[in-house]
Every structure is written in C-alpha cells, then in structure tokens.
Amino acid sequence: MRRLAGIVILALFTVFAMNTEAKAADLENTLHLELKSGMVVIEMRPDIAPNHVARIKELVREKFYDGLVFHRVIDGFMAQTGDPDGNGTGGSGQNIAAEFTDLEKFYRGTMGMARSQNPNSADSQFFITLEPSTWLDGQYTIWGEVIDGMEYVDQIKKGDERANGLVEDPDKIITMRIAADAK
C-alpha cells in the first residue's frame, strides 16, 4: 500500500512538473496587448510561423509597438497596426519571407501579417481579423490568435469604408508585452 501511495505521489509530482514547464513555455509565446478598452491575450504560433513569431518577439522586446496606431480598421473584416509611420507605408525595415499554411484558417481573432503584393514583404505590420476571412487562407502568414479579449478588439475605432478603412484620430496600442517577461 505504501509503495502504491509513493508511486501515485511521484506520478502526481511528474504531471505537476510537466504542466508547470508547459505553462512556462506558453508564457514565452503569449502576448499581452494593452488597449484603452482592456487587455487582449494573444497566443503566438511558432509551430506554423517560426520566423514571424521570432521577429514579433524581437520587436515587442524593443517596445516597437508601444504607441502605434490602428491605422486601418474595416468593420466586419480586420484591424491593422504595426506601422511606425501610421499610414500603412512603414515598417521596421526587415522583411520576412512568407510562411503560408493551408492547415490554419483566418477565423475571428486570427493574427495575420500584412504585406504588399509581394508575398515575402511582411515586416512589422499585422492585423487581427474581426470576422472569419477565409479568402485570406494560404495567402497571408498566420502567426497567432486572440485567446482572450476579443471584446476589446471589437471596440477599436473603425475607419472610413470609402477610404479603405483609413482611421481618423485612430486608437493606439498602449503596450505590447511577452507574458514571460512580466514575471
């Protein structure tokens, strides 16, 4: 009986230790995006877009995204940010080759990389889909998904539909941090 109790305790300890390690690994791939309306939690997906996730992490750790505006927001489609110029033409200066996948789809809350007509032109700009946008599948890199706080994303100021979603006096990212760094 003692031996069985010892085995059960060891098994429980092992499961707890593995679960703690998994949570620690998840924190490295979890972003906290602070908006004026509340905190958005994003799960990054290095399993499908390792280069994009690595670059996003670099930029987040440099506080690149803090204070940047949502310059293009189209109601029922997406909210786009990540341009230091605030007009959709700027970036960090480092393009990332496309990491398209047919395994994942653009659902509500999917994080995608903005780009020009060149598939390998993604830089620092990204968007959050407000509704399923399946026409983007396999054409834009998916690098994460909102796992909490979509109600705050929904509150981002929308742009003028006649001006392709250009936002006058746009909302901003207050801060964007990797959860592991907040320990």
Write a structural description.
- The protein has helices at 2-28, 50-61, 150-153, and strands at 30-35, 38-44, 72-74, 78-81, 110-113, 126-129, 142-148, 175-178.
- The longest helix has 27 residues, at 2-28.
- An eight-stranded antiparallel beta sheet has the order 3-4-6-5-7-2-1-8.
- The termini are far apart.
- It is globular, with a radius of gyration of 19 Å.
- The chain has three helices and eight strands; from the N terminus they run H-E-E-H-E-E-E-E-E-H-E.
- Residues 4-24 have low confidence and may be disordered.
- It has a single domain (30-182), classed as Cyclophilin-like (Cyclophilin, Beta Barrel).
- It is α+β, with helices and mostly antiparallel strands and 183 residues long.
Spell out the key features of this protein:
alpha+beta; globular; Cyclophilin
Explain the layout of strands and helices.
Layout: H1 2-28, E1 30-35, E2 38-44, H2 50-61, E3 72-74, E4 78-81, E5 110-113, E6 126-129, E7 142-148, H3 150-153, E8 175-178
Antiparallel strand pairs: 1-2, 1-8, 2-7, 3-4, 4-6, 5-6, 5-7
Reading off the top of the CATH hierarchy, the class is best stated as Mainly Beta
Q: Helical content, roughly? A: 10-25%
What's the structural domain tally? 1
Reported by name, the CATH topology is Cyclophilin
The secondary-structure element order is: HEEHEEEEEHE
Main pleated-sheet profile: 8 strands, antiparallel
Instruction: Tell me, rounded to a whole number, the average pLDDT.
Output: 90
Number of helices: 3
Rg (C-alpha, Å): 19 Å
Cα(first) to Cα(last) distance is 41 Å
Secondary-structure arrangement, i.e. CATH architecture: Beta Barrel
How many beta-strand elements?
8
